[in-house]
Amino acid sequence: MMDHIIGEAFRFAVSKFPLNPVTSIHGPKHWLAVDTNVRVLIEGEGVEDADWVVCRLFAMLHDCARMSEGEDKDHGRRAAALIRTLPETITQAVTPYQLSVLTQAIAAHNEGGTTKNATIGVCWDADRLQLTRPGVELFPSPEFMSTKLGKILAVQDATNLRLYKRHGDEVFFRSTKTGRFSSRQANFREI
Ligand SMILES: [Fe+2]
Ligand SMILES: [Fe+2]
Known about the structure:
Blueprint: H1 3-16, H2 28-45, H3 52-61, H4 75-82, H5 88-91, H6 96-107, H7 118-128, H8 148-158, E1 164-167, E2 170-174, E3 181-184
Antiparallel strand pairs: 1-2, 2-3
């Protein structure tokens, strides 16, 4: 019953997207894959508190303001600002609280944090599990997942782990000796 607003959000995001929607590694193909992850996380996790409408809107909208295929630290905040300009068909179909959670999830999605909020946790994990995609090829790590299932799926992904990973716009290096990750702002590289 709410599917029409997901399609509406998808069309809105495409209309605002500054990059090439066909070729972008952060574009519509990624949004749809995040949407699939949302369904898996909500169903697999049994996260009763997670609001699937908010999570699916997040999938469609979180990267719609990306201006670069590479580093773009403010793209979450810019996309969050666009929430105020969503068509009424969407804003009238959800509550002010849902819009507020959606805005928070989008604004901070690339800042690297985790959360105890079930809805925002599903949003962020669904996005981070998509780090391993053509053109990005970075690996999600369980310590940066908010949901239990997200952590399990990240471990499975990490079986292919190279010796680097990136989370949001931060870079993490893994020591081959200690297995620990350290972070610093830099271009990612293997160690
Ligand atoms: Fe993003
Ligand atoms: Fe994303």
